[in-house]
Design a protein that fits this description.
By secondary structure, the protein is α/β, with parallel strands linked by helices. It folds into three domains: 16-119 and 306-320, NadA-like (Rossmann fold); 128-207 and 330-363, Rossmann fold (3-Layer(aba) Sandwich), CATH 3.40.50; 209-302, NadA-like (Rossmann fold). It has 16 helices and twelve strands. The structure holds iron/sulfur cluster (SF4).
Length: 364
């Protein structure tokens, strides 16, 4: 069979207008306080725990922590949910996160404020096309990023997060294996350069990390010579080349602890700034530049699908008991296998699967 050329580049399905139009309005202070009080009661009444991603609205992050839940990245969210005694997990994030939670906790009810909160990486890697890609390269070990659907995970040998991708691929490379990687081309490119692995990548990308601008970041860096540049590896190669540290969301949080450094330029979704500022109130965090309001279309460091989560739609889902994440039961054990493989690998290697800085290829 001849190799499949991957021509995908954020298709029409990644149109973000519907998501932006669905972003809830900010509540008035009295309404916000009333809904927050009601949500605390509803979570208790439903025996539910709220897990929120670093990129969602600060109110949701604070509510999760104030009610015994968690703010984290997708895998930690799922692991926390699995180990928590609550019968219902409420996931404030995007759909693949709810699916991962359901895969690890199939016996629990997994609710989300919006099931149509998507991700450009997930949308850009449809299962049927991905299956054809895999079938064309049967000699390769299939490694997929966590930002994929349950159906794509079910086709994979390994699921990885940005915190453990380099370690897993290096391990496979040392065993002489060639890699088929999906869906993020930038993370795949970074992992290939770090490990030297023969890695054939799907060509998806995150619409948020794709927005960072190279020249503007160079200029900002030059104007702030004492600042450290922290970059998520979903960013393009030219942005990563300007980084002082490259890391997952948790890696970025850890890097901000660097002693003697008080200013950081951060290239990831700006939802992350809430946790950074809470954790290091004495330090300064500056967004890496995007085209901003000068762009011909919306350009910002914020995910429209993450922004669809709000207090009011969280209230609705708790009142109604839905919408609920449902996954074909046949898929669950198949999708769980590559996740368990990663968890076992990271446990045995003492690598926090969802955490940590990945090695850096060299700051500019
Ligand atoms: S920030 Fe990017 S990777 Fe994260 S959910 Fe949004 S589109 Fe997907």
């Amino acid at each position: 069979m001849s190799p499949i050329e991957v021509v995908y580049d954020n298709p029409v399905t990644c149109d973000t207008r519907v998501a932006w139009a669905s972003v809830p309005e900010e509540l008035t202070q009295p309404r916000r306080q009333a809904v927050l009080a009601e949500l605390r009661e509803l979570l208790k009444a439903r025996d539910a725990v709220l897990v929120a991603h670093y990129y969602v609205h600060p109110d949701l992050q604070d509510l999760a922590e104030a009610t015994g839940g968690l703010v984290a990245d997708s895998l930690e969210m799922a692991r926390f949910g699995k180990n928590h005694p609550a019968h219902t997990l409420v996931v404030a994030g995007v759909r693949f996160m709810g699916e991962t939670a359901k895969i690890l906790s199939p016996e629990k009810t997994v609710l989300m404020p919006r099931l149509d909160a998507e991700c450009s990486l997930d949308l850009g890697c449809p299962e049927a096309d991905f299956a054809a890609f895999c079938a064309a390269h049967p000699e390769r070990e299939v490694v997929v990023y966590s930002n994929t659907s349950a159906a794509v995970k079910a086709r994979a040998d390994w699921v990885v997060t940005s915190g453990c991708a380099v370690a897993v691929v290096r391990h496979l490379h040392q065993q002489g294996k060639k890699i088929l990687w999906a869906p993020d081309r930038h993370l795949g490119d970074y992992v290939a350069r770090e490990t030297g692995a023969d890695l054939l990548s799907w060509q998806g990308s995150c619409i948020v990390h794709d927005e960072f601008k190279v020249q503007e970041l160079k200029d900002l860096k030059a104007s702030l010579p004492h600042a450290l540049v922290l970059v998520h590896p979903e960013s393009p190669r030219e942005i990563i080349a300007l980084a002082d540290r490259v890391g997952s969301t948790r890696g970025i949080l850890e890097a901000a602890a660097t002693p003697g450094v008080n200013t950081f330029i951060v290239a990831t979704d700006n939802g992350m700034f809430h946790k950074l500022r809470q954790t290091y109130p004495e330090k300064h965090f500056i967004e890496a530049p995007t085209a901003g309001s000068g762009a011909t279309c919306r350009s910002c460091a914020h995910c429209p699908w993450m922004s669809m989560n709000g207090l009011e739609n969280l209230r609705t889902v708790l009142l109604q008991g839905g919408p609920e994440i449902v996954i074909d039961p046949v898929l669950i054990p198949r999708a769980r296998l590559p996740i368990d493989r990663m968890l076992e690998f990271t446990r045995a290697s003492a690598i926090p699967a969802a955490a940590g800085l990945v090695p850096h290829i060299g700051a500019a």
